[in-house]
């Protein structure tokens, strides 16, 4: 293909991002967005995307858990394809751009490559992964996990949402049928996979750069803790006799924060994002507290070492306060390295386009983490305002999005040549 | 009347307590009980009580917010009456005896006095106060507050529940009509008021005593705090850049615990019973946290001094962590002293019955705190196992309940002579 900058129609992309954002269960209007997997709203978003894929002349395939592949047939369709995509589910009260830029951006990249007369040998597919967010089932990236064999069909089928319904039941009620065993892709299915995404951090904006070429993806682990203390009347039980589950949880939360800050790795982050108090009455001493821990690092060993320190610290606090502590590891995934071939392709695209870039790591959790197990994988980041994500004020400018889509288009063109 | 021990039918009282406990919204069966004011369940409990009052030949009056008076007419009905009662609402997942022993116990006391041929000059009334628990509107004792003029009709009418419905709307939907201004009782309505209640603390059981004669009721205060920090993606925002609202709340919760423990008064207790995290997602940094503070002491000045220290400490934590702190005082009531006449009447009853007793203070919050503003008031405590209350395992033996009802009956008989 020509090495001219692809004529990205960014107004079209932004318009499609806004139409998608309007398909939301958030009580507040966009930019606040809530779109949880397998809800009626998720299904409407999928129907909207299918319409765009078909308008673009792509062939759509949906697997048994709703991972969606929109294929632009190459001149040699038997060759392993090039994949690009992300997710469209959104945690409660989040924003417009997380995931969606990678799906609609990949679609736009194909549209401009077609328009530019590009005729790649390899097919190029837009992938929309099911349930990148852990909102409903407590574990994220279930679509790419099953696709890459990182989780077994049985383990996935048995996961339950807060209503106690299994993943298998819910996906079938949402209209996705077929054997979960058919979701895994063969190792030679993709020649390469690349995901365009907002950075979800402040580095690119701070350095006034257009593009981040990802070299590694941080490894997340998730835990669930339950504290059983002793309840009672807030007026009657004197302070020395208390075994308050919330005070124990508070001390544990601060221990987690301290150990994360003291970690040898500046990239290690630990977050208590959920904390539920029982019985939750103004005048009742909390008897039970459940809370979550999300801990990540680009160094999996360091992450696991800090997670172990945290477990020790929490057990010591529980002992000292005379409360019972139960802990459960939900997942602990290894970090992923980007393929040199993908880094090279993205950097040559950036060079052609005259954009400013840096190599960087992804601290956030992406489907690419799992795609890297079955294909040479890379990620292209664009800046987002203030590094803000998972919030309604998450924002990237049309220019930033356009630069990302141009970079993705040229990267895909090279990989598919 | 004769000074023989009144022939309390404790099987009947326990049976009525158990029937009342079965009227519950708790998903678990009794002894777990949930009965929130103005719910359909609260109304069923009120209907059950009315049936018992009528069987006992008492005249029932219900005021515009549902405070219920069941009157045994004295030989000189024009004289100020003697009142005795408590509440039947129950916080989520609590027990059988809190409040209910004071209502059904007062009913049994009247039944046995009638049976014993007692013919008092003054009328004796069983009072069931509306909403002693703060569960629904955030403020407790709304029935006795309005009855005693401790809150204005307008202030009460405008209080809202978590659905945003006002007290005035909800009480009318529950079928209670009439002007809120008519709830306040004149200062000469009651000659005396006495409340029978489980101790909700461990002292009587530890000292193997039958009865506690209350000399003072601790003063509760309630506050609501909101912390506004900065949310974001749990993977992307590095630890040093965070303004995590939950970590700030955790530090504040521990500061409250520490200041309460360090207080000069051993009777001071402070509890964070509610804590809500927004957005509450595993992989999202908490951006907002709301929590409650309940703080009590028999020394109102000390309580207010510690509450002020807590406010200062919380403000300092908010500053240091760069989060915004909003605080609201829901109520701060003065402590109450029991009337000497009531203490004397209860102690002479205990002497006649040959029971073992001690004078003590009530650390828990009762409608008597407000009744003391409009009538000479006292309280009679019975032991409860392990001092446990507001929990399903709250328990007093039939013998303990019987001793309490006998003491109450003789106390009422003297006061009504």
**CATH class identity of the largest domain in chain A:** Alpha Beta
Shape of chain A: globular
Gyration radius of chain A (Cα, Å) is 23 Å
Q: N-to-C SSE series of chain A?
A: HEHEEEEHEHHHEHEEEHEEEEHEEHEHEH
Main beta-sheet annotation of chain A: 9 strands, mixed
| Class derived from helix and strand content of chain A | alpha+beta
Average pLDDT confidence of chain A is 95
Number of distinct beta strands of chain A: 18
Largest interface: A-B, 71 and 71 residues
Q: What's the helix count of chain A?
A: 12
Q: Stretches of chain A where pLDDT falls below 50 for ≥5 residues?
A: none
In the CATH hierarchy, the third-tier topology of the largest domain in chain A is known as Aminopeptidase
Return the CATH architecture of the largest domain in chain A.
3-Layer(aba) Sandwich
Beta content of chain A comes to 15-25%
* Percent helix range of chain A: 25-40%
Q: What is the multimeric organization of the chains shown?
A: homodimer
Fourth-tier CATH superfamily name of the largest domain in chain A = Zn peptidases
Protein name (chains A, B): Putative hydrolase
Keywords (chains A, B): Hydrolase, Manganese, Metal-binding, Zinc
Organism (chains A, B): Posidoniimonas corsicana
Subunit structure (chains A, B): Homodimer.
């Amino acid at each position: 293909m020509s090495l001219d900058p692809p004529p990205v129609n960014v107004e079209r992309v932004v318009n499609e991002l806004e139409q998608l954002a309007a398909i939301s269960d958030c009580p507040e209007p966009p930019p606040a967005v809530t779109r949880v997997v397998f809800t009626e709203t998720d299904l409407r978003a999928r129907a909207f995307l299918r319409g765009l894929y078909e308008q673009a002349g792509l062939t759509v395939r949906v697997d048994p858990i709703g991972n969606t592949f929109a294929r632009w047939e190459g001149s040699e369709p038997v060759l392993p394809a090039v994949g690009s995509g992300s997710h469209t589910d959104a945690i409660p009260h989040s924003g417009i751009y997380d995931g969606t830029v990678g799906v609609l951006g990949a679609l736009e990249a194909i549209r401009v490559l077609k328009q530019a007369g590009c005729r790649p040998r390899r097919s190029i597919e837009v992938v929309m992964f099911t349930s990148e967010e852990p909102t409903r089932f407590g574990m994220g990236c279930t679509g790419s996990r099953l696709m890459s064999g990182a989780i077994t069909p049985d383990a996935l089928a048995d996961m339950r949402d807060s209503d106690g319904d299994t993943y298998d039941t819910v996906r079938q009620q949402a209209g996705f049928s077929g054997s979960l065993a058919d979701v895994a892709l063969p190792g030679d299915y993709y020649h390469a996979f690349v995901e365009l995404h907002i950075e979800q951090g402040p580095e690119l904006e701070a350095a006034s750069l257009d593009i981040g070429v990802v070299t590694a993806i941080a490894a997340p682990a998730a835990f669930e803790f339950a504290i059983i203390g002793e309840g009672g009347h807030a007026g009657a039980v004197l302070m020395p006799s208390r075994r308050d589950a919330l005070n124990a949880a508070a001390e544990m939360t601060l221990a987690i924060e301290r150990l994360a800050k003291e970690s040898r790795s500046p990239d290690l982050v630990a977050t208590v994002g959920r904390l539920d108090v029982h019985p939750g009455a103004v005048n009742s001493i909390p008897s039970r507290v459940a809370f979550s821990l999300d801990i990540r690092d680009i160094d999996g060993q360091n992450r696991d070492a800090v997670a172990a320190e945290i477990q020790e610290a929490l057990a010591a606090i529980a002992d000292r306060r005379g409360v019972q502590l139960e802990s459960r590891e939900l997942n602990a995934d290894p970090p992923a390295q980007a393929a040199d071939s993908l880094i090279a392709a993205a950097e040559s695209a950036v060079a052609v386009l005259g954009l400013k870039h840096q190599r960087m790591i992804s601290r956030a959790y992406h489907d690419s983490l799992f795609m890297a197990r079955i294909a040479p994988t890379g990620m292209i980041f664009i800046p987002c305002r203030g590094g803000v994500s998972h919030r309604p004020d998450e924002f990237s400018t049309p220019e930033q999005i356009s630069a990302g889509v141009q970079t993705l288009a040229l990267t895909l063109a090279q990989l598919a040549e």
